[in-house]
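Final report, Chapter 2: Outcomes

The project's central promise was a pipeline that accepts a single protein chain and returns its three-dimensional structure in a standardized token representation, suitable for archiving and comparison. That pipeline is now operational. To close this chapter, we reproduce one record exactly as it appears in the project archive, with the input sequence first and the structure output second.
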Amino acid sequence: MIGPAASLLQRAETLLKEGRHDEAAPLFHQALALEGDRRAVIVAIMGCLLDHRLQEEAIQLGQAGLALFPGDAEVRVLKGNGEFRQGYFEDACVTLDRLDSKAGPLARQGHEIFLLATIGRGETPSVSVGDHGSLLSAIEEGRAPDPTHWSHWTRHYDEHWKILAARYMKRWLEAKGEGAPRRPPTDRGWISVNSMRHYGNLAHTIGDYATAFLYARMNGLDLRTPEWQGQYFFDLDDPFAQPGLPYTPVDRAWMMRCLHEKRTEAGPANADLFHPAVSPLPLWGQEAVRNRLRIRGAWKQRFAGALDVTGGGAGLVALHLRYRDLVRPDMQAKRPFDLVSFKRQLAAHILREPASRLLILSDDPQRAKQDFPEFRPQSTDDLPPEDGIVLHLRDFYLMTEAETVIATRGSFARAAVMIGRQGQRLLSPDYERECLTPEDPWQSDIYR
């Protein structure tokens, strides 16, 4: 029980949700100084830090916690989790080694992260964790994960599934006889972006890659990348990034000025940039990014059946609607969503183009069909079965092929149009004018 520290931790978490990290830190220190169960307070603070993706701070506190409570499994698991999220796979393996997976749910969770860390450092686990061991084996062999196991991992390891997805994609390409070979590094200067491995989903990592690619190209640097989904989804051959490097924060205003003014002034070199994505991206770099981020033919072939079921890209209106974003206050503040108004806007668009066909790509396809019955839409439930670990890639591919894409929130649909077929239209709701309005994804603020 954390006792009198509870109110301090509650206030600190509120500040973290508002992005006021500097103001939250003193409250954590006050909570640690109070009398009571210090171990419980350490565990609560570490959990809060990890919830808000402050891995480095959680790792440091975990180090102090283990010095005070060296045998505490909960502190050990939280510290190892933070190390794994940061890409410190060797450290995570050391922290989580010798946990008995049969000693209860907590130890089992730590052992699962230990296995993920062994995958992260390029090894094949030689042990399993009961039912979930079959998922790891399936990924290692490029086979489809059992859906029940996959739902467990996405629910409990949201930060980790990206590594599993990348490894699955790698194995699947190798089974197809294609692979994704890397170029050897040159002896010139370089930048790397290891944060792409765990920070943000596919669209965010595309923004990181595009920004870093243009910056490296402009300054004559090698771009080195970790094992990330884009390496295997797009036809890329970038050299491997050295793992475990300290992150270099990016001044985004400075980066944007450099790219837009095409200035090669002194900046980061021989450094690992943390989440460098900026937007809008410069006009001079748009064609270079499109040419660089070409979807591999093997994935196009794999998803061709789904595109056929929709009737093909011509006349296809792909609506991306992620219901879980609708309940997020930060997303609601940035891009409000009004279902009633949106349906009126969609109806007006369909009336103008009666030959169009609506495909809703959603995290809840059944609810989407219930919300939009008058449009007789197709949803992902109507498409051929697909492995859950790459469903988001299929949705992304379908949007790159659609004639019109409607984006409600987030960067996913906008990133798809950035690199999609020529002549695509991107529309987004305008609640003041009550109509779907054209949007240029290259000039959007999706990565700000």
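Archive annotation: Confidence is low (pLDDT under 50) at residues 124-133, 144-157.
This record, like all others produced under the grant, will remain available to the consortium after the project formally closes.
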